[in-house]
Every structure is written in structure tokens, then in C-alpha cells.
Amino acid sequence: MRTIGLGLMGFGTVGTGVVKLLQENRDVLEARLGARLTLKKIADLDIVTPRPVAIEPGLLTRRAEDLIADPDIDIVIELMGGFEPARTLILSALSSGKHVVTANKALLATHGNDIFREAEARGVNIGFEASVGGTIPVVKTLREALGGNHIRSIFAIMNGTSNFILSKMTDEGEPFATVLKQAQALGHAEADPTYDVEGIDTAHKLAIVLSLAYGRRVRLEDIYREGISHLTPQDIDLARELGYRIKLLAIAVEREGGIEARIHPTMIPFNHLLASVNSNFNAFHIIGDAADSVFLYGQGSGMMPTASAVVSDLMDIARDILKGISCRVPSRALHEASMPDIVILPMAELKTNYYFRFSAVDRPGVLSKISGILGQKDISIAAVIQKGRKRDGAVPVVMTTYKAREADVQAALREIDRLDVVMGKTQLCRIEDESL
Amino acid sequence: MRTIGLGLMGFGTVGTGVVKLLQENRDVLEARLGARLTLKKIADLDIVTPRPVAIEPGLLTRRAEDLIADPDIDIVIELMGGFEPARTLILSALSSGKHVVTANKALLATHGNDIFREAEARGVNIGFEASVGGTIPVVKTLREALGGNHIRSIFAIMNGTSNFILSKMTDEGEPFATVLKQAQALGHAEADPTYDVEGIDTAHKLAIVLSLAYGRRVRLEDIYREGISHLTPQDIDLARELGYRIKLLAIAVEREGGIEARIHPTMIPFNHLLASVNSNFNAFHIIGDAADSVFLYGQGSGMMPTASAVVSDLMDIARDILKGISCRVPSRALHEASMPDIVILPMAELKTNYYFRFSAVDRPGVLSKISGILGQKDISIAAVIQKGRKRDGAVPVVMTTYKAREADVQAALREIDRLDVVMGKTQLCRIEDESL
After folding, report:
1. How many CB atoms lie within 10 A of CB B34?
2. Reported ipTM exceeds the 0.90 cut
3. What integer pLDDT is reported at residue B164 of this predicted model?
4. Which of A24, A28, A101, A287 has the most B C-beta neighbours within 10 Å, making it the best mutation to test the interface with B?
5. Domain check: are A28 and A81 in the same one?
């Protein structure tokens, strides 16, 4: 049986999962592949701490460069994360003619252009299924299964930490800070949760997804991004009253002249499939012009689910190697040479539905002042909830709107927040509801 | 730009969709493929009726054999359906060295062994993504994306007609016969709905799914099968009271010694993702040992969604052709030569949870007689609902059970149905609920 040599860079959680999976599922892997995937070397700075998996002595090294120099290694698996030395090592592996599999979304979203161009120039494959949606085959689905479609839109939950926190806030009515601490204790959130809860991780993933869907390069800074740390249990309760759940969504919509690309907490109707995605699960609701709705759901992170995606890339590349070919499918759906930049529409020009929670003084005429300003800015009110219960001397006045322009909404809120009958900053949440 | 020649057999709804998709999405297809997919011939017995798509004159022929003889045709797309002449034509195309794409689940489930063996012997590809789950990339997901996993279980809704009928019965409280007529009027059910509502179509699809998941040949007759025509609005209401929705599920579970494979109406908890799959949508809940839960959802039928799956197969095969290779991935996950038969466990030995609706005479002691028999057969009762409302002189007594053996359940019901205090046949529905 032919052997495909693997080199693993990064022996952390996911790296350990990959080793475990290659060992434990060797039977199905060999039966399906007709070849053996063999780990030749594992590089990690920490060669001391024991991992929950047995490896041959001598496999482990501190020098990642050794893997690139090893002629027995066909595929390098990069699971170190971070920008350096991952970037340099990947580029060096590619230019040495090695195929690469990586889960490094931050790197691909930031330095993808160099990396994918190098892979194509060297005629080697780069697999990155594990970089987005963990175990969910969203790369394969966008690039291959939906290859005959124009992608109309993608609505996705791509950050398990944020979804875990929002789900828990929804179920238990606890504030963000409390739930974040619980998530950290359970290992569902990092000590510094900024990347996850401020939508940065989601932006990296959306950049990758956009390039696959539209065969275009994306500038990360063009994606509008807003996190979940400002959400309150009160907003979650009010959303529920309105028939909505709040999710941190990544949204991509094909529009005339470009693509809408934004990440922010979003109210979606209870009966939307994404509303049922709880805990740390991820999901993608993709609409193709021919396929119609396709919904994919699974574990977005975790040792074995992510390892499963890494191994699916390994199998794909191994199949090419066994047939003596490479680059059967362009990494980012189109050939790098012919790939134009994506045009992302400015957030200010987008139209969507809004939820506002004003902190108003309990006095006659407040509603008319607020709605007057909204009217001047061409913002039509769909619903109003005023419950009259005072909090810190103010009553919450909640409004939802029909489709309005972001720039108009921001201008209106600036004006409203200056009113002497309004106390504190108005809370805003965007709504995606086809019935509005 | 290189051209890949296509021949289409069957110019019905899906065939028309494929032609339309190749025309309308030529831009993305060519950009992603770097080649042109060109229809060389279309064969159909009806060359007169106009289709909602413009084709070059001279493309249409009544002789499907002409496509096989045409040296310009690389891939034959079979969308005629039925056993003959589809089977003979596919085998003939394969033995002429042509790749084949088909959506013909009945044919693959019944004559798959001959067809897949011939394809492998001739070194050509056979694509069948459209045969299961319509637009949902379940073939690709099982065979490639989850290739590193042992598949623990698959729970699926694979028949749009049955799901449409059950959803409408649930939402509107109408009986089966009424909803079937509405579905027929809307084009969601055939004039003879047997294939769909009796689970035959689902069995064909499950046979294909099983072979992909387990790399084994399946005998169709080993799959237990029960349809939806005996379900009543009363059972749907009672299920709702118990916290369940009824769906026609195809179930495959890996067990010691073999695979559990069954198709029947199933009560599942409201919060299960499959409970939210309504109208004519299909969905697959797959559990892999590494990947954990993966859920896929989309249109299981329809002109353009099915065409999207056909075109994804065409692109896959075209990519092999462009690289000068074939058979990169074994059609049924393993090489045909090394493929053993699957062991499907006998239904009588399986254990699951049950719902019974007894039609009991309203008289003291009935409950003790029924529960006595259940107890003798080792069937433990989880819940009882008795509402006392008479229907035709009988009151419905509803029970749910903890895990019980199918053979014991059938024996108990035979005995119970003979009791003089029980009027008419007891209604049985299986429950899948992890909390039971």
C-alpha cells in the first residue's frame, strides 16, 4: 500500500486531534483511500508536555524547518495558528513543492493573496476546510457542490464562542459579563475574548467565504463589523417579545454593483433555521440561484470536529497525489491570476430593518419627537413597544422599522441621542425578517 | 477554451433545468472550470412539445443510442428515470468509455452493483449527487468531507412529498387523504403517490446513502419500510401534546454486528433540527465519530435545485477530464472489488421507544389489562394520556414507552388487539428521543 507522508506543525488541541484521528480511524482511511497517511514528523516548541495520544519516539521536533526539508513529507499540516512563523513556514513549504493543509483563518484572511498565489505558482494544493465552520464542509460546498450557482446570499453563524454566550444569555437571562466568565470557565472562551466577541474571528472567516463564493479577493477592512459585548438581557427579552432571537451573523448578499458584507448582532424570526443554532454550533444558510436554500450545521471548533475537516483535506490532496495531479480545483474557486478584487458596498448605503431601544424620559411628547426625527430621515416605523416600566428614571421605548438606509439611521440616532428627553445612547440592532 | 461534450438523455423537468443552468450560468461555470460544458445532443421520445428553454435546432433526437455513439460526447447525463431503457443505456455508455451522471435512485438502488462495477472496470466516473437529497451535497459530504469518520448514525428526511403532506397535516389538522389531494393539485405529489408515501422512494435513497456511509452493498429488501398513509390528525395532535412532531425518517445506526436501517413515521422532539424541516424540504442529520453532528438541509427535488446537483457532478467529472484522470474517488466510497455486503440487523431485534394509541372501551380495568400485557413483554411505560373523550364508542388511550424490542412490541400489540375491551387496531408510532 502506497504511503503519503505527513508533517504536522503545531501539536496543540487540534494537532493532537489529527494524530488521534489518523491512528484511530486508520481502517476507514486506508479502505477509502487505498493508501496510508503516515505522520513523518511533528513540530512544536513544546516537546515536553504529554499529549493524550501515543506517538513514536523521535517523531517530535522543535524545528519546523525540518519538516520542509524532509523529502518523505508530501503534505505539511499547519496548526500553529498566528501570523508568524506560520506565514513564513507555509510559504516555504509551498515553494518547496509541498502541499499544505491549514486551519489558520487569520493568516488566510490577511495574507491569503501571497499564500494562494504561491501555491498556484508552485502547482501544489492548499486545503483550508478547517479554517471556516470547523467540521462543516462549507469550503467544499461553496467551491464544488454549488459550483454551478451564482451565490445570492450567505447568512452564517461562524463563531462558536459568541453563539455560546448569546445562547446562554437568551436561555438564562444573565448579562454578557457573567456569561462570558462562565464560558471562559468551561473553555468556550479565551482569556482575552476580543477576537471572538468583537466579530474579528467571524470577519476572517467571512473574508474566506466571500472569496470562495464570488471568486474574488477581499480586503478585510471593507467588511463592516460589530460584536456582541454591548447586548443586554433586556434587548434579548424585547427581541423575544417581537418574535426574534439575536444571533451574531455574518451576512453576504449579492447586490447590483457589489457585495453587501457585514457582521453584527441580528434579530431573526424564531422559525428561521439559524434561530435554532444554539450553544457553540456554527451554521451556514446559503442561497444559490439554482440550488435555492442550502443549510449546513455542525461543530465550528473542538479537537475532533476540526481534525475531521483537516483529514478531509488530507484525503483530497492524497487523492490528487495518487493520481499524479494537483490543483484540480482552484483553491479560491477561480485561478489566482484571473481573480479580481471583490467590490464590497459601503455600509452607509445598505438598507435593512432596525430595532431601536430608546431610553426616554417618561413625559408626554417624547414619542412624537423621536418619530418626527425618524420620519424626516425617511425611516418608517413598523412597530412600537412602550411598557412604561422605569429603569434609572428612563422608560425603554422600542421601535422596529421597515427597510431604512444605514446612513439615515445613524444620522437620526445622533440627533435623537442629543434630545433632552432621551437619556443615554440608543441601542440599535439590525433585523433580518422577510415579512417586514 | 477546452470543451467538454455533454449528451442529455431525458428532456423532462430536470433535464430542462440542466439545459437552462448550463446556459444561464455559463459565466460562473466557465470561470470556475476553465473549460466549456457544451451540450452536443439531447435525446427524448418527445421531440415535439416545446420546453421553457431555447436549444439549437438539430440538438434533439429520439435515439438515445446516438449519444453513446457520438465521439464528441464525454459525459452522458441520464435523466429519463425508470429501469429500462435507462439501465441498458447507462451500461452501454459506461462500456463505451463515457462518464455518466444520473439522478436515477430507483435504478441505482436496484441495479447499482452492475452499474458501479461496470464504471470501475471501464475506468470512468459515475456521478449521482442528484439521486439523493436533490440539491443537498450529501453524496459529496459522506464520501469526501466525512471520509475520515466512522459514521455513527444518519437520520434523514429524504422524500419531499411525504414531508409536504405531513407538514400540512400538522399545520392544518386535515386528514391524509385531503392533504394528498391538495399536494397532487400543487404538483407536490404524483397521481399514483405510492412510491413517495409508502417510503419506497426513501428506501431507494437510504440504500444509496448506506452504501456511501459504510462502503458496502445493500439489499433493498433488508430495509424495514413503513409509509405515512395510516397516520391521522389525532396522532399528530397527540404527538404535539407529548412534545413531538411526526416525520417520515430514514434511520441508519451503526450497531455491534451490523447496521440498523429503517424507514417509518417517527416522533421527534420539537427542538430537534429535523422537526423544523417543513414543506417539501429534505435534510440529513449525520453523526460521525470525529465530526460529531453534521446537519444538511435543502430542496430535495425541483427543476433547478436538482439541476444544480447534476451540474456539480458534471464539474467534478470535467475536472478529472481536464487533468487526464478518472475514478479519483471510488463511486461508493470503496473499490467495488473489495466491497462486502452490508449486514442489516433484523427489525424484530431492534430497540426503540414507542407511542401506542389504543382504542379502548370506556370501562374500569382496561388500563390494567393493557399495561399487564405490556409488562409481561418487558415493555415499560414512560407516559400515559387518557382524555376520556369517546370516538365511535371508544376512548383513545395513549402510551409512550421506554426502549423496547420490536418483536416484543409486535407480540404485545397482537395480544392487546385481541382483547374484548380494545376496539380496532392499535396505532403504533416509533419515537426517537434521547431523553426517554
Report:
1. 15
2. yes
3. 97
4. A28
5. yes
Q: Are A105 and A178 in contact (CB under 8 A)?
A: no
Q: Which of B141, B142, B216, B314 to mutate to test the interface with A (most CBs of A within 10 A)?
A: B141
Say if A436 falls within a structural domain. no
For CA atoms B28, B33, B34, B35, give the dihedral sign. Answer: negative
Same domain, B47 and B132: yes
Block means of pLDDT (10 residues each) for chain A, length 436 residues?
Answer: 97 97 97 97 95 93 97 98 97 98 97 96 98 98 97 98 97 96 93 96 97 90 97 96 97 96 97 94 98 97 97 98 97 87 95 96 89 97 82 84 98 96 95 92
Q: Can you list the positions of beta strands (E) in B278-374?
A: 281-288, 292-299, 351-361
Separation of alpha carbons B198 and A333, rounded Å: 41
pLDDT score of A123: 97
Q: What is the side-by-side strand order in the sheet with A60-61?
A: A60-61, A35-43, A2-9, A75-78, A99-102, A126-127
Chain B contacts of A17, Cβ < 8 Å?
290
| Amino acid A4: pLDDT | 98
Whether A48 is covered by a domain: the verdict is yes
Minimal CA separation from B423 to chain A, in Å: 40
Pair (B203, B102) in one structural domain? no
Query: What is the model's pTM?
Result: 0.96
Residue B362's CATH number: 3.30.70.260
Are B213 and B157 contained in the same domain? yes
Q: For residue A343, is it within any domain?
A: no
Query: Do B369 and B410 fall within a single domain?
Result: yes
Residue of A nearest to B339 (CA): A31
φ, ψ dihedrals at A144, nearest 5°: -115, -60
pLDDT tens digits, B4-55: 999 999 999 999 999 999 999 999 999 999 999 999 999 999 999 999 999 9
Euclidean distance between CA atoms B261 and B343, whole angstroms:
10
Q: Any idea what DSSP says for residue B205?
A: H
* Overall domain count for chain A: 3
Q: Which domain holds residue B426?
A: 347-431
Residue A390 has a pLDDT of: 65
Question: Residue A59: which CATH number?
Answer: 3.40.50.720
Residue B110 has pLDDT above 70, yes or no: yes
Residue in B41, B98, B105, B205 annotated catalytic: B205
